[in-house]
From TrEMBL:
PANTHER family: ACTIVATOR OF 2-HYDROXYACYL-COA-HYDRATASE, BIFUNCTIONAL PROTEIN [INCLUDES 2-HYDROXYACYL-COA DEHYDRATASE (N-TER) AND ITS ACTIVATOR DOMAIN (C_TERM)-RELATED. This is ATPase BadF/BadG/BcrA/BcrD type domain-containing protein. Gene3D superfamilies: 3.30.420.40. It comes from marine sediment metagenome.
Length: 110
């Protein structure tokens, strides 16, 4: 399931966005959020048995969501974080800024 929430921004100005990726043994989740914590778009996929294939598929679907949206092109991804059992591999594949365990991610979010 993919949800897209479009935000209207001033013409010519880029807004900051942050990408979170969770690739585990069963599923993959990708979320793009703005600076206020609003969900801009998300992707949920069942794991394809390979973290590399899952990361590629999720990023491709995320890119498609952005390209199909009228306003998501107004955002620029400033930071990317990964979590899940394949966090370090995913970090290397997508060039993420950080990789944290789910326990740390939950604690910080709380």
């Amino acid at each position: 399931m993919v949800e897209v929430t479009e935000k209207v921004v001033e013409e010519g100005k880029k807004k900051d966005a942050f990408l979170g990726i969770d690739i585990g043994s069963v599923s993959c989740k990708f979320v793009l959020m703005d600076t206020n914590g609003n969900l801009l778009t998300s992707v949920f996929l069942r794991n394809r048995g390979s973290p590399i294939d899952s990361a590629k598929a999720g990023m491709a679907e995320l890119r498609d969501n952005i390209e199909q949206s009228e306003n998501l092109g107004d955002y620029e991804i400033r930071c990317c974080g990964t979590t899940g059992s394949a966090r370090y591999l995913t970090k290397a594949i997508v060039g993420a800024d950080l990789a944290k365990t789910e326990i740390i991610a939950h604690a910080v979010a709380a």
